[in-house]
Structures are given as structure tokens and as C-alpha cells.
Amino acid sequence: MTVTLGEGGTPLLQAPRLSERFGVDLWLKWEGANPTGSFKDRGMSVAVSRAVEGGAHTLVCASTGNTAASCAAYAARAGLRAVIVVVRGAAAGPKLSQVRAVGGEIVEVEGTFTEAFAHAEQLGSQPGVVVVNSTNHHRIEGQKSAAVEILEQLGGAPDMLTLPYGGGGNTRAYALGFGDRLPRIHPVQATDRAGTVASAIRIVEPVHRAEVEEVLARSGGSIATVDDEAIVAARGLLGSEEGLYCEPASAAGIAGLEQTARPGERVVCVVTGHGLKDPL
Predict the structure, then answer these.
(1) What is the rounded distance in angstroms from the CA atom of residue 208 to the CA atom of residue 88?
(2) Same-domain check for residues 67 and 189
């Protein structure tokens, strides 16, 4: 059984005004076009399909918001229970509204995402319960489809890829999807991971840190670090220059361009989520 809401096949949009601004040939992978408004749907479809095949009755995840909305929606589609663990006050309200709208159960914990993830793993140790965070390898397999699409849409690999850096699972997924046609990859993180306005990447300890370091070593990339002022400014540029309304974290790749881009390169920035999910 394939559990799907029509995820994937998202646009790769050329960005002429921002290309001129940054001196590169810039393209935007617009993941806000996925069913729940973020890239998480790609991997969730695969993870939930495999959970159903394995006889699961409950899905559980820890989330800053996007995984929560996606998990709850795909659980509803499959007729499963969804338990969502969030840090109290840390997830954007519209994302939690998405969870409630499709029948997901929200459990709030104190602390950081690390504590939320530990609680989710504890719940996931019970029979019939499957954790659908990016530590579930089926999630990564689904998410790597975005890189495959870029190769098809561009007719080859870009010179460089930038994307937000929260837990690091998406960086790992893109590297797998590009295979031996790996561009230089630059994950972009917030200066203040614990308190950034970009709630989707408000993760102090990236679960996939080791895998990200391996990807950087292979691709010749590096981590870019930007402050909230730069993230908010980049979000504004995406809207005013190219007409895309994204959540703050999704603009991180644009915010990191001044540190990472080389003149004349073909660059893809992954815009991970819609602005309606986390409006400022």
C-alpha cells in the first residue's frame, strides 16, 4: 500500500532578480508546493507506507512543526494514530493547527528538541509504534527524490546547493539523491540555534551531524552560519524579488549565499516550507 497525498514533483524556479543580485544563475526548489506545505511530505509518504506494511497502529515523532504536520496528515490518510512530541512553546502555531485539524495528538515537553526526540524514541519502543523522524531511513529515501528531480529539471547537477540546516537529515538525503553527481553543498544554520526566529531549524544538537560532516567532506562544501536579521531579510527578498512566500527557516539558503556562492555558478537553493506555516 502506498500512502500518498500527491507529494513531490515540485517546481524548480529560475530566479532572475536574485541571480543578478548575487551574481549567479540561481534556481529555487519550491518545496512549499507539497501537500502539507513542506519538504517533509516526500519522506513521510515512504515512511508511513512502510509502517503500514509492517502492521503499525501508531506513528510518533518529535518535531519543531513541519514533521508534526506531515506525520499527522499521512497518519490520517493511512487510518493510523499520530502522536506528536513538541517542546512547549517552540513550534509555530499554524503547524500545530495542521496537526489538530487532521486528528493528531500533541504531547508537550519541557527543554529542547533533544528532550522531545528522546521522549518520542521512548514511545516508539512500544509494539506497533513507529518513529517517523529522519532517523527512520525510509524518510531519507523519500526525501532524496528532490535531488533526483533537480537533476532531471536542470539536465544535470548544479555547481552548488544551499539548504536550511536543522537536524541535518535533508542534507544527507540530497547527497544520496545526487549520487556521484554531487554538487558543493552548503547547509545554512542560525547563529542562535536555540532561540532563532526560524523555528523549523531550532535544533541545538543536529541528529545527523556526523552524516552532514561526511557530505561536506565529499562535496567540498561547508556550513554557513547566519543571524536572524539575515534570515528575515532573505525571506523578504524571496517575496519582493521572486514572489515566493516562505517560512523564515526556508530562506536560510538565500541568507547564506553571500558566504558560499562563487560568481557565475549555477546554484540551487532549497526553499523548504510555505510562509503560511510560520508567518512573522
Answers:
(1) 23
(2) no
Q: Determine, yes or no, domain membership for 3.
A: no
Q: Per the domain annotation, does 152 fall within a domain?
A: yes
Structure confidence by residue, pLDDT tens digits, 7-62: 999 999 999 999 999 999 999 999 999 999 999 999 999 999 999 999 999 999 99
pLDDT of 196-218, one tens digit each? 999 999 999 999 999 999 999 99
> Are 154 and 240 in a shared domain?
yes
> How buried is residue 126: exposed, middle or buried, by Cβ count under 10 Å (0-12/13-18/19+)?
exposed
How much is the pLDDT for 1? 84
Which of 138, 158, 185 represents a domain boundary (last residue)?
138
**pLDDT value of position 157:** 98
Note the pLDDT of residue 280: 76
Place of cell 549520487: 179
The count of structural domains within the chain is 2
Q: Which three cell numbers stand for residue 96?
A: 500545530
The b/e string for 193-209 (b: 16+ C-beta within 10 A; e otherwise) is: beebbbbbbbbeebbbe
Please check whether residues 33 and 45 belong to one and the same domain.
no
For 249-272, what is each residue's pLDDT tens digit?
A: 999 999 999 999 999 999 999 999
Query: 0.85 exceeded by the pTM?
Result: yes
| 121 and 153 co-located in one domain | no
Structural domain of 95: 40-138
